[in-house]
What we know:
Layout: E1 4-13, E2 20-22, H1 24-34, E3 39-45, E4 50-55, H2 59-72, H3 80-85, H4 90-99, E5 102-108, E6 111-112, E7 119-124, E8 131-140
Amino acid sequence: MLMKIISKTIQVDTKGEDDMIDITEEISLSVRSSKVQDGIVTIFVVGSTAAVTTIEYELGLRQDFPRMLGRVAPKNIEYEHQKMWHDGNGHSHVRASLVGPSLTVPLKDGSMTLGTWQQIVIVEMDIRHRQREIVLQIIGE
């Protein structure tokens, strides 16, 4: 079999800090249209103040996740980034680094191997709304 490598991008408009957007369906459509049956899809958000992860996309966790980030990297402490740039988002960079900019999901029989309650989300950490570019790389046969 011939290995395929397909790159796609999707655009997502965020509302700003703590916005969490379910992008599972868009990625699933891209995977299906690629015709790759077995392989992987890597999801990568471009930028240093957003992240990609999986979560059960329900109201409680959509509230719990930002609260957790606030405990781990609070807004109201001193950040060297803030001292240097005075842009108010030092905590945003730290939070995004902790969660990470990418995720890889195995593909089997043309579908992502996600659990029933597992969705792929982009989490905006920046203090303002942004248009985010998400790069998908689908590899397999």
